[in-house]
Structures are given as structure tokens and as C-alpha cells.
Amino acid sequence: MIVVTGAAGFIGSCLISKLNSENFNDIVAVDHFDNKDKLKNLEGKKILKKVSRELFFDWLDTNAVEVEFVFHLGARTDTSEFDTNLLRNLNTRYSQEVWTKCVNYQIPLVYASSAATYGLGEQGYEDDEEKISMLKPLNPYGESKNNFDLWAINQNKKPFFWAGLKFFNVYGPNEYHKGRMASVVLHAFRQIQTTGQMKLFRSHHPDFDDGEQQRDFIYVKDVIDVMYWLMHHRKNSGIYNLGTGRARTFLSLTKAVFNALQTPEQIIFIDTPEDIRDKYQYYTEAKMQKLKSTGFIEAFTSLEEGVEDYVKTYLQPTKYY
After folding, report:
1. Among 91, 243, 285, 314, which is disulfide-ready with 247 (CB 3.0 to 4.6 Å)?
2. Mean pLDDT within 91-96
3. For residue 53, how many other CB atoms are within 10 A of its CB?
4. Is the dihedral of CA 24, 37, 144, 248 positive or negative?
């Protein structure tokens, strides 16, 4: 059995599709299962059992001998969430318990960290574990993820294989339920379909022109390919960046969506909301040498190719992966 926490979410549900396509069908899906929109992500997938996140640890105590691998992707991922107790419980403490169970039962573990841990990038974007204690995330979500990374690398007892993946800006199918936290690709698609135009945040930083803010956008299919590879690799434990290694502008992304829709470009700039303005990352770019040094050599999908596939294969027909 393979356990996927956050199974009904964006990346978790895509991972289950990948596993099913490789004939891994004994999937234990762990989630809260209270969101009808998220549950659509699981329709048609081969799942052995659904386990509530509140009951998961008891279930694992009983069934650990049958568990081959744990992908811990469940978390509160809202970067505008400021309830630190909630984030501490769902993101840090819950992850610590997952880790401890995997140690006790010697189950290999891959878990989701985040590029939000890097903050403004004062320490760069290298996945150097010696720098984790120096990182300064911009919001409580990033802090909760960084706190767990720091806790994990300082543990004397670790799973025989483990990997923490710092996801950069992931986009792709099965994010319909995410609302404000959905990728810019989905927001652009909906705005362009509705109004024929796209609104982008104006730059409030002297070093960046409007629309020239840059992020490392990575297609979800590439993310799950890496996770699937790690499930078989099971060597070189540690914390790894997971992006393409190439920062692209929001203008480039938006133009790719217009192109995929074969619609004339019409872009309008608006002020960045004040509640996130002082916590806004203007530039992120994953340094990918560490992952590549372990033997992962597959090329990542270009932004233009990923956007075209996402728009034409999933968004226009409203399909799930």
C-alpha cells in the first residue's frame, strides 16, 4: 500500500493518477474529505481505502506492516492564513507525527515543503540544509514549513529514506477548488474567458517593472514525475528544491495563456493588495543542481508547453487529471 496524505488536493490527486497509470492501485488516501469540490479530484481513481486525517495515525499503527511508502502532501497551504496555532498544528506538528511514525515503522517518506520558506531570498535559493536556520519566510505558512524542515534535519532518528521537496510555483489540473490560492494560469484562463483581459499586479518594487516579477513556474506533471522517481530511487535523503531552475515573468505566463486560447492580448495592471504587499516575493528561482546530482536527469516542461497542455487538455474541456 502507498499512503498519500492531502489526497483530494491539487498535487495529491495528480500523484494518485500517476501511480494508477503505473499500476499502483493499492492507494490509501488520507484527507479531511469535507470539501465537495476537492472530492471531484478523486473521481475515477483507483483507491483502496480513504482514511480521515484525524484517524490516520491509529490506522497506521494497525496497518504499518503493509505500507510501502508515504507521500505526505497534506497541509494548510493558504499563504494569507495568519492563525499560527492552526498552521503549527496542521503543518508542523502533524508532519512531525508522520515523520515519527515513519521512523518507528521504517517507512520511506517524501513530504511537501515550500519555496515560501525562502522569503525574499536573502540567502539565495539553494537547497543547502545548513542555511535553513537562516531563512526568513514572509508569512506564517512559510514559517510552519521551515520549522518542520529545520526540525527534520536535526532529528537523530530518521526514516531510512526521506526527502523534503520545496515546491516552487506549481500549476496544472485539479486546482479548480483552490480559489484565491490557485495558480496564475487558472486565474488568467478564467479572466480571459470572462472578460477578454487579464489583470496583473503592478510592481511596488523599484527593481521590477510592472509584470516583470519573476517566479519559477513548474508544471504539476513534472512535480509528480520527480516524486515517482524518488519512490524508486530511495537514496540520497535530504531536502530538495523542486522547480524548473528557470525564473519566468508573469507577463510571459499571461501571454502564454492568451496564446493557448488564441485570444488577442489585453493586460491591465492593478495594485497588489495591501494585505500581501509587504510579503510579496518578486523573484524566485530554484537551484536544481542538488536533485540532478542524485541522478534525476529528465528535462522539465517549458512554461509555454505546460500552459498549452493545461489550457487545451484540461481547462477548456473542464477535465481532471
Report:
1. 285
2. 93
3. 16
4. positive
pLDDT tens across 151-165, in order? Answer: 999 999 999 999 999
Cα 60 to chain centroid distance, Å, stands at 24
d(CA 98, CA 72): 8
Residue 319 is a catalytic residue: no
pTM of this prediction? 0.95
Residue 86: what pLDDT?
84
d(CA 72, CA 95): 8
CA distance 165 to 220: 13
pLDDT in tens, 243-293: 999 999 999 999 999 999 999 999 999 999 887 787 788 999 999 999 999
Query: How many CA atoms are closer than 13 Å to the CA of 79, on its beta-carbon side?
Result: 22
Q: How far is CA 69 from CA 10, 17, 140, in A?
A: 20, 16, 29
The grid coordinates of residue 302 equal 517549458
237 CA to centre of own chain: 19
40, 45, 178, 199: the catalytic one is: 178
DSSP 33-86: ---HHHHGGGTT---SEEEETTTHHHHHHHHGGG--EEEE------TT---HHH
Pick the catalytic residue from 141, 240, 310, 321. Answer: 141
Q: Is 282 a catalytic residue?
A: no
What residue ranges in 91-246 does DSSP mark as E strands? 109-114, 162-167, 169-171, 198-201, 214-215, 217-219, 238-242
